[in-house]
Amino acid sequence: MAHVAPWKKEEVSRLQTLVKEKPVVAIVGIGGIPSPQMLKMRAMLREHGVMRSGKNNLFQLALKEVEDRPGIGDLVQYIDGQAAILATDVNPFKLYKQLNATKQMMPAKGGDIAPHDIVIEKGETQHKPGPIVGELQKAGIPAAIEKGKVVIKKTFTAVKQGEEISADLAFGLSKLEIFPIEVGLRLQAVYEEGLVFKPTDLDIDEVAFGRDLVRAIQGAVAVGVNAPIMVPEIAPLIVAKAHREALALALEAGYTSPTTIKPLIGRATSQALAVATQLAPEALDEELQARLAARPAASAAPAAPAAEAKQEEEEEEEEEVSEEEAAGGLGALFG
After folding, report:
1. pLDDT of residue 296
2. Taking the CB of the first residue and of the last residue of the chain, which one, N or C, has fewer CB atoms within 10 A?
3. pTM for the whole thing?
């Protein structure tokens, strides 16, 4: 059996303790980050987590042998390049956003690989005529002097994605303040509650997601009300809907009760006054004449159709579910 250095055993033990202490464990790429930027990034993450760099083979050993964290060993396949383990209490979606916030654009160095096509646009530069023209031309950049200014004569692709950036081109890009290299902590995978998320799983449009979630909640609550699904969160909406429908039915049938008597009398009175407006004044007694005189001109039209229209509007409104009602019923349906 091969001898294992004590310090390696101790490091694996420390890593295992680290990933057990926090609910979320991530594999983070740290390659190419200058030391000053790395210190700032560590400081930014320190409040909610601990990041530990080291040897990839020790990371693999530690994760494979962690107990009581089902599925955490799946992170091993995402350990690649210069990596670190980040243990935190920040949920994966927020962590992805936080790590993206650490990224910044840096000047290229000779030997860097272009992360994308680097295009230099035609136009004036901020430089005055001088040696800069020759330096740009040496880098293959079509620079010239026109009207006392250094200009780029045409738009062109200086280097394509995946190609190496030469030292001369890196110098020229820097002079033109083109910083093509993105530096920052790169989330390679993150574990939480038995699941491993890749960056593509976490890159979502929060605004669109919020709208979709509200629509889903509204639809779910509407289904719960109309089904009906009698649970504590939706029961008040079901009872209110039943009450409105029962009241509408009672009024239509002319059924008298303590609840319906006033609306029925009010409707009968409105209908009587509507009929009275069609009669000759001498056919009305003084009370009716006084009541008709006191009515606004706009109310001279028959009241029954207006009452029916109002009832129809109420019936339409009861089918709609507000965002507040939807939010109240979400827990019941998705528990």
Report:
1. 67
2. N
3. 0.55
